[in-house]
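Friendly challenge for the regulars: who can give me the structure tokens for this chain first? No prize, just bragging rights.
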Amino acid sequence: MRRGRLRTVRPFPWAGLAALAVGAVLCVAGWYGVSGERFAARQLPYLASCTVPGAALIVAGSVLLTYGRAHTATARVEELYGLLVAAGPEDQEGPAESSPVAPVAVSGELRMVPGGTLWHRADCPLVAGKPEAVPVDGRLLASGDLDPCPICEPDAADS
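First reply, four minutes later:
Bragging rights claimed.
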């Protein structure tokens, strides 16, 4: 069941986007100011007042965006972990760990599929209801050409 949660505004991504935008505007303004001046002495104020702070804001905005995404991912992982811990083993339905697992198949009749490499109990889910499943030939079992099914775990003494 999914619980509703309140949407919260996270300041880091918005602050990062704002810093990126202001930094880009300052860099463009600095470039425009530098490009209009012929002498380096007159270009220096534009570099100092616009381009350098603009580049610093772009770097700061990138850091804030990265931190905001990492913070959001961390919060999501913590929320999922809390849900996982809340749905512990006591909440699960089914047999307890101490009780033995019920066998998949209990029939004493053994079957095989022609051309197959395994032999099964007749009520094994792999052969149950298949018309091509035939009784196992004792000679194939004795020769070792067939292996027991790992799901129903038949015993050669059942034959």
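The chain is about 50% helix and 5% strand. The beta strands are 110-112, 118-121, 134-135, 147-148. Your move, everyone else.
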